[in-house]
Design a protein that fits this description.
By secondary structure, this protein is an alpha+beta fold. The chain contains six helices and eleven strands. The strands form three sheets. Strands 2-3-1-4-5-7-6 form a seven-stranded mixed β-sheet, sandwiched between helices. A hairpin with a 7-residue loop joins strand 8 and strand 9. The protein is globular and about 40 Å long. The protein starts with a strand and ends with a strand.
Length: 244
């Protein structure tokens, strides 16, 4: 799953007449970034939620090219869009990548389940909002512990685990979960594609894993074991192939 939300979509500078253009820009840029990494639109369903949405990928889609899209072409596409757009149409995106079982709705529409709720809770976390505001970049990507342990920390494909730093996000009910955030914020300026630049502020957080209530403590640096011909492994233990 990939969750996305637009920064400041309810600001006074943006009235309802601009919201369709904001949505079209957001979905178009993400679709193009995914396409460049070989993830076609027929491999995922977009569930619209207010000014954001959730992308539910088919079980056979590897998370590797999805994460490569978020950290590779998407930042460049966002900066290019922002440089040629008015202030009201510039985009800042919060993105969360997570994996798990989705409970299908009886009518075949949106899905439910604990993992869906967790993804949306991470997306709305105040720490993630602060990370986007403080970085000066046009985006911030957070990956869950499942995605980090199963995919990202191994450096598959063109993924760079050193580009992420650990943080703790507070979700609904006050529980905290460990996530890894990109871009890193270590005091260097970030270009968000607008005329002004902001100085990045360090993120708060540490590498200590936070265990959700009722779950067993994670086993060290363990995770999902990958077979030689498998690009990545689904967090529900199904083979996922890089479809590029």
């Amino acid at each position: 799953m990939l969750g996305v939300d637009v920064r400041g979509s309810s600001e006074r500078i943006r009235d309802d007449s601009l919201l369709p253009a904001l949505r079209a820009a957001q979905t178009g840029l993400i679709a193009e970034a995914l396409r460049q990494q070989g993830v076609d639109q027929d491999t995922y369903a977009l569930r619209s939620r207010g000014d954001g949405g959730r992308y539910d990928f088919l079980p056979g889609v590897s998370p590797v090219p999805v994460l490569e899209a978020l950290t590779g072409p998407l930042p460049s596409l966002l900066r290019r869009h922002n440089k040629k757009s008015s202030e009201a149409l510039r985009l800042g995106l919060r993105l969360v990548a997570h994996g798990g079982y989705l409970v299908p709705a009886p009518d075949g529409g949106d899905a439910d389940g604990t993992e869906v709720n967790l993804l949306h809770g991470m997306l709305e976390a105040e720490e993630l909002r602060s990370a986007l505001a403080g970085s000066g970049a046009p985006y911030v990507v957070a990956v869950s512990e499942e995605i980090w342990n199963g995919v990202l920390r191994h450096g598959h494909g063109d993924l760079d685990p050193d580009a992420f730093e650990p943080a703790r996000l507070t979700v609904k009910g006050g529980a905290t979960v460990t996530a890894w955030l990109c871009p890193e914020s270590r005091g260097r300026p970030q270009d968000d594609g607008t005329p002004d630049r902001a100085t990045a502020a360090p993120l708060t957080g540490n590498s200590t894993a936070t265990v959700r209530p009722g779950e067993a403590e994670p086993a060290g640096r363990g995770g999902i074991t990958f077979q030689s011909r498998v690009k990545a492994k689904n967090v529900v233990n199904g083979d996922q192939w890089n479809i590029r």
